[in-house]
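We modelled the chain as a single entity of 246 amino acids. Its sequence is:
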Amino acid sequence: MKDSYVLVVGANSAIGRAVCLRYGKKNRILLAGRDAAEIETVAADLRIRTGTTVATVAYDAMTTDAAAFFARCLDLAGNDLDGIVICQGLMDEGDHAKNDPNALARIVSVNFTSAAAILTAASAWFEQRKRGFLVGVGSVAGDRGRQSNYPYGAAKAAFATWLDGLRHRLFPAGITVVTVKPGFVDTGMTWGLRGLFLVASPDSVARDVERAVEKRRTVVYTPWFWRWILMIIRAVPTPIFLRSKL
């Protein structure tokens, strides 16, 4: 029999599916996503590929009550939940969030508010349990605001800062809290975007998630070289940066 459940939120995303495949080799998996039919398809595929036990739960970042959602997850997992990986994300299409307050609200809700709400609902349970891991998938876009995607980047930056605080709070309880910052990843969210380079596969991101949890890392850039790319971008003096096309 495989180990405790791992909850993957946003399991229908490319990164979410890859994370499920990784953890499905040694854990039972609880899938959460908005499209119920698609989640069931992912679950069926996962059962075939890994032979693990898979359960599904409906979740919509814009409408689902986080406390009720986490209570449902615990019930499905029989209170045997080893960790949570938040893979959900929404990138602005057509720059709507730069001018439309409602579009901005959706970006912030999916990429920060709802993700943080789930982990808020889960934090006390894990703190009392004194073991487990919580992973939030953010983005390198949050390291410096750029005119090309600052609404998305700002939401991811807020999530990263929030995870820093959660990590500080839960460290005495022995809970691993990991912030994962991918660069460009080959997913539906980035399909068709111009100017992409050094594009990683979803599986490479999932591998780095798994390794980060095993090694109890705090902040992980994936692929690793993005740490140095962003270090250079952050170091560009503001007068020069303001004239750039980043």
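As a brief sanity check on the tokenised model: Residues 188-197 have pLDDT under 50 and may be disordered. The two ends are 50 Å apart (CA to CA).
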